[in-house]
Amino acid sequence: MAQGLVLVADSSAWIAFYRASSSPIKVQIVDAIKNHTILVPDLVLVEVLRGIGSERSAKNIELEFNNYQTIEVVGKGLAVLAASNYRVLRSKGITVRGTVDLLIATWCIENDIPLLHADRDFSGFEQYLGLARWPISEKGKIS
Length: 143
Known about the structure:
With about 140 residues, the chain is an alpha/beta fold. The protein has a single domain (about 5-130), classed as 5'-nuclease (Rossmann fold), CATH 3.40.50.1010. It is built from 7 helices and 4 strands, in the order βααβααβααβα. Strands 3-2-1-4 form a 4-stranded parallel β-sheet. Helix 1 runs parallel beside helix 3 (about 40-50) and helix 5 crosses helix 6 (about 100-110). It is globular. It starts with 5 loop residues before the first strand and ends in a 14-residue tail after the last helix.
């Protein structure tokens, strides 16, 4: 496993990594793979693998994910907190479209781990709940 900072990469980042020939998010995830420790939430693993067209490709990608530490995200405490975060964002006029995004963002906030993503559903978490977005500048501010 790479050293450096620890971050979580969301399924939106991994999907861009596997699909796009070149994109800013692909460059970011390649840098993260080389220089940092990437945690893969179990829910992200499900989202990535379910979108793979063939069993052979899915198995190959599953094997690639063995290079990263998989973390279990959901427990009762986090579930309750995620639901509270959903209500906070709704009160601000923001509706999070996916439960998985809600859980991953809440886990990252609670564990003070930045999130690498390409998904607009995380912007409310960044703006109102303190989610750190990867990459983070040298001064510790969100880039």
